[in-house]
Write a structure and sequence with these properties.
Blueprint lengths: L14 H18 L2 E2 H19 L8 E4 L2 E4 H10 L9 H8 L2 E4 L3 E4 L10 H14 L4 H8 L2 H9 L6 H7 L4 H17 L2
Antiparallel strand pairs: 1-5, 2-3, 4-5
């Protein structure tokens, strides 16, 4: 049986979801050779928005939360903190270690990869949106990138919710069509009916 996380922010994630997230972060870090975790988080956020807007689905299953400097993927954030030595091991450590053990952290901020991504976890559309977001955001100064990430989805989550950023609002912030939004809503309904 596949293991699931227990942390409330990522309890919906399975071990396959963590392996997918590992492939995503390793793709970004290997592409850039070394990059701040702040930039990885924002590159991933903008790639997710693009992918939701174009294809009506997420690249990975980690949840984004609105923090003061912008959206942060919850499980990835904890995995990076473990890799940097800033977080105690918890019950979810074996799943988070799938990611943290694949990363090196220099100066508690700069990520490098210890291995290549498993490309079987990435679709062509995933790679397309990740690559576009990397090219658009990897060299943007931190303050500017933080401001850019304070889009309508982040703003709504910051003010009106538990800070969790909704997929539909993320897609809308990235310019999704009404048809794509309806597709996401229908897919969400089907998944809830199936218990997925």
């Amino acid at each position: 049986m596949e293991r699931k996380a227990t942390h409330p922010f990522y309890s919906h994630m399975t071990s396959d979801d963590f392996l997918n997230l590992k492939a995503v972060v390793l793709f970004i870090v290997n592409y850039c050779r070394e990059i701040s975790y702040f930039h990885v988080f924002k590159i991933l956020y903008f790639a997710e928005g693009k992918h939701c807007a174009r294809y009506g689905r997420r690249i990975m299953n980690d949840s984004f939360h609105a923090l003061p400097e912008g959206p942060v993927p919850s499980a990835l954030y904890d995995a990076v903190k473990i890799a940097a030595g800033d977080k105690q091991r918890t019950g979810d450590y074996p799943l988070l270690a799938l990611i943290s053990d694949a990363l090196s952290v220099k100066d508690k901020y700069i990520l490098t990869a210890k291995e290549q991504p498993d490309m079987d976890y990435l679709s062509k559309s995933d790679i397309e949106c990740l690559t576009e977001s990397i090219k658009e955001n990897k060299d943007v100064p931190k303050g500017e990138l933080s401001a850019k990430s304070h889009d309508s989805a982040w703003g709504y989550a910051w003010v009106n919710t538990d800070k969790s950023i909704d997929d539909i609002r993320m897609a809308q912030a990235a310019g999704a069509s009404d048809g794509t939004i309806e597709y996401i809503k229908e897919h969400r309904l089907i998944n809830s009916l199936l218990g997925a």
